[in-house]
Design goal:
The protein is mainly alpha-helical. It has helices at residues 23-41, 46-56, 60-88, 90-108, 114-130, 133-143, 148-163, 166-176, 178-198, 230-237, 242-247, 252-259, 285-289; strands at 264-267, 273-275. Helix 1 (23-41) packs antiparallel against helix 6.
């Protein structure tokens, strides 16, 4: 009895295999959800001021002091946070940040003094910073080169989306009180934030991938496999000779990806490519036009 032909064998010539979503977009989605919590809880913290002022009789100076305390915390934590990201990775920082953020709101639901309020607010602020925009931005930058602007734009939209939930939080305070609202918000943040943090990976290499889902063939363009560093000198100066590097064993696509800049300004017949220096953004226009006829061009799977 003959076996039925497989789906791949019966595929029409014009059909292409289905591609999975690049994991970097799951990292972005997780970051958006975490930013939604930050935007709704800290961005809409003003909704808590009225009930706190009514219950404790605190002046506006007390709440202004809390805002100033958070600014000081952000300034002091910033340089240390960069080292922590490099040392421990984004996932651990986001996990710790989510837990501290949630515990801060749980503690705030039990306060009865200004000192307790400041301590709980500072705890939540530290958590929001550790698992917030700086850590998430560094992670997204590691995952994307060609689509970096789109990914960062989507990530930053999370804070704005969180602002849309502020009326919901105000309704919850009217129905259940500010203490219950803070307590539930803190617990909900921890319960949902930890699974979201599990999706975070510091860089695509941790999963055996490359930025933007580039094919494995571009691993040959990693700097550790170069014969010398001349190409990096050219890139840092803002110009590089694509033909020379290709003759040294680099593929044109890999050279274009690593030279930096967002667009190739000109491609001349002798294959010299002048590239505007600018980090490690994907430069591909000239490389695609310089490829031999019939070459299959890579397309990111999203």
């Amino acid at each position: 009895m003959k076996e039925a032909p497989s789906r791949a064998a019966t595929a029409l010539p014009h059909e292409t295999p289905r591609r999975s979503v690049f994991y970097g977009w799951w990292v972005v989605a997780s970051g958006i959800a975490i930013q939604v919590f930050s935007g709704s809880l800290f961005g809409g913290f003003g909704t808590f001021i009225v009930p706190l002022e009514a219950e404790f009789g605190w002046s506006k100076t007390v709440f202004a002091g809390a805002t100033g305390l958070r600014q000081i915390e952000s300034g002091l934590l910033g340089p240390v946070q960069g080292w922590l990201i490099d040392r421990f990775g984004s996932q651990i920082l986001v996990r710790v940040g989510v837990v501290l953020f949630g515990l801060g709101f749980v503690a705030m639901s039990q306060i009865d003094s200004i000192v307790g309020f400041y301590a709980a607010f500072l705890l939540a602020a530290i958590g929001a910073s550790l698992g917030g925009v700086q850590t998430l931005t560094v992670t997204v930058v590691n995952w994307f080169e060609r689509r970096r602007a789109t990914a960062l734009g989507l990530l930053n939209s999370g804070w704005s989306i969180g602002g849309l939930l502020v009326p919901v939080m105000a309704l919850a305070m009217s129905a259940a009180g500010w203490r219950t609202t803070m307590l539930v918000a803190g617990i909900l943040l921890i319960v949902t934030g930890l699974p979201l943090a599990h999706l975070i990976r510091s860089r695509p290499e941790d999963l055996g991938l490359l930025p933007d889902g580039a094919p494995a063939s571009c691993r040959s363009c990693r700097p550790s496999q170069r014969q010398d560093g001349a190409g990096w000198v050219h890139a840092a100066a803002g110009a590089a000779y694509l033909g020379v590097l290709v003759d040294r064993g680099w593929s044109r696509r890999c050279v274009a990806r690593r030279l930096g800049g967002e667009h190739l300004s000109r491609v001349v017949p002798n294959r010299n490519v002048w590239s505007r220096a600018g980090g490690c953004g994907g430069v591909r226009d000239g490389a695609e036009r310089d490829e031999p006829a019939g070459t299959t061009r890579w397309r990111a799977p999203w």
